[in-house]
Amino acid sequence: MYLQEHELDCIDIQLTYVQKSSGEKKRFIRTRNNSELKEAIMNMVSVFAPYAKLRLGHELKRNQSIKDLEFPFTQYRKGQRQLAGSVYKTIQEEKTIFASAPTGIGKTISTIFPSVKAIGKNHLKKFFYLTAKTTTRQTAEEAFSHLFRKGLHMNVVTITAKDKVCFTEQGICNKEHCEFANGYYDRINEAILDILHNENSLDRLCIEKYAVKHRVCPFEFSLDLAYAADTVICDYNYIFDPKVSLKRLFDDHKKETVLLVDEAHNLVDRGRDMFSSTLDKAPFLQLKREFKGRNENIHGNCKQLNDFFIRIRKQAEPSKTVEFKESLSEFNQLVLEFIDHAEKELLRESPRDSELLLETYFAAQNWQRISKLFDERFILYAEVQRNEVKLKQFCLDPSYLIKNAGKNFKSRVYFSATLSPIGYYMDMLGGDEDDYVLRIPSPFSSDQSNVIIQPLSTRYKDRENSIKPIVKTLSETIQTNPGNYLIFFPSYQYLNSVLEEWNLGNHGIPTIVQGTGMTDAERETFLDSFKADGSGSLVGFAVLGGVFSEGVDLKGDRLNGVIVVGVGLPQIGFERDLIKHHFSSTGKNGYDYAYVYPGMNKVLQAGGRLIRSEEDTGTILLIDDRYLQRKYQSLLPDVWKSFTVK
Length: 646
Prior knowledge:
With 646 residues, the protein is an alpha/beta fold. Among the domains are: 48 residues, no CATH class; 119 residues, Fumarase C, Chain B, domain 1 (Orthogonal Bundle); 200 residues, 3-Layer(aba) Sandwich (Rossmann fold), CATH 3.40.50. Helix content is 45%, strand content 17%. The chain has an eight-stranded parallel beta sheet with strand order 6-5-7-4-8-13-3-14, sandwiched between helices. Strands 17-18-16-19-20-15-21 form a seven-stranded parallel beta sheet, sandwiched between helices. Strand 17, helix 20 and strand 18 form a beta-alpha-beta unit. Helix 2 packs parallel to helix 7 and helix 14 crosses helix 15. The model has no long low-confidence stretch (mean pLDDT 92).
């Protein structure tokens, strides 16, 4: 264009590389004439043209399908229309809403449907459905399945974790080790055109099928599809986590994109994890030894870092922990130098294999990233275990960073059955006074659930004495009302202690147990054990806050009762006490912020597994004397407050 406008025969074009740490620049200049540049441009346009044509046709078909789309169920449940209308209004007005809506109301479809309709009205271009767990991702996919059956034409992509979809056993992501990475960019355009032309629901199985067909990495494929899709179903971290967020997405398009944050109560602790970072002494000591005589820059730098850890270890004695109110500038500079040296080593044409160097490089990068966020909402502490030293930048209050990560999007919809107390969650998720707040009462009657409180102490010091009474209560409950029960415990240790006593009783009742690190198939088997055939009783032992305490839908007689042991308080520990002290220093109730509210949220989620429809009935048994205290009763749902005391 410049050549033609100025009637020139040729022009110099320049590509500049900048070394980010040193600022060193390298320039490559080439001279090109009019015909050469025209040919290059036409080649690029010819590659992009089929995609542009496909997208244009897709948008026309999508918008017409949305115009004709009706709510996929015969009628709205009580409160469902109110939620859907509030979400639509929030998007239309480019606001933020915090919506507390009870389990069983149909929150997923009530947030997705109005968002789809808003796309049809050109209020937005795309929306993300963000979840914390696989089960809630599947619920979102099922909601779209209902809409597809009603005629919706949209591209909906689900991003699955890399380690779950990788086709290679080793999981090494480079072209030397993986045929799906080798030549990826030569084949990806055709793969994208193929799948978008033929599919609407781009879930894991669909993406894997086309990834095999076109020999492309399924994970990278899903990320590339996220640019083209109308909706993306994925984990929180793709938006909020500075390590893995989709930065190449939406710097220009966020203003036309909406965030639907499901089970938003989980984002508080997830946010803390995302905005915290840890470095250990051991890798630097090992790298110091490994690179001696091989790369003196890495060797010398790791020696300095190891020496720094040793000084901290001496400083921490005898308490084994030491806190720092400010970041350690000397340490951070050494980490920055390590990143530079490691990068050069890893980018060599014939790099020596060092998995440890790569892992430590990523950990150091994250440390440096978090150090730039460090302020009064963080604390830096060191923990010493024998010769090992761990340094951690711990995010005490993630609210500002959560707010900052979402601020450039058009609208944000935070919703959950357990955003209670709402003021706490608005505070912790970065809410403002002018944000919308919606509280929808339960559509279900208190008569549907028989709520019983057994005032038994389950405090740590009393747990040994509580085991036999809990087993006795469980046995009596099932004998009185046979059926399928889930019993939740605050820890695996407590669960196993009660399970051992339960098994000694030889009750003859089939019992299944949540294990640590269960695979998706094992979780599915666990849930499939709950059958509504009336063939007998079943007891499932599970952990509060785990995969079976939320996002699980066991309708009808698949679940007849939920028993919750304890009030869900996190175990008293160093980090929880840091959180408590931080919020106490800001004039809030630090104990409630660190322990009570997160704990009771787990209780409410677990109890919410029982009543999922107007036809469901059953028993909720809360075992702990603290449920009789005013503070804890105030946090119970209204439909639970007509309880009896055992």
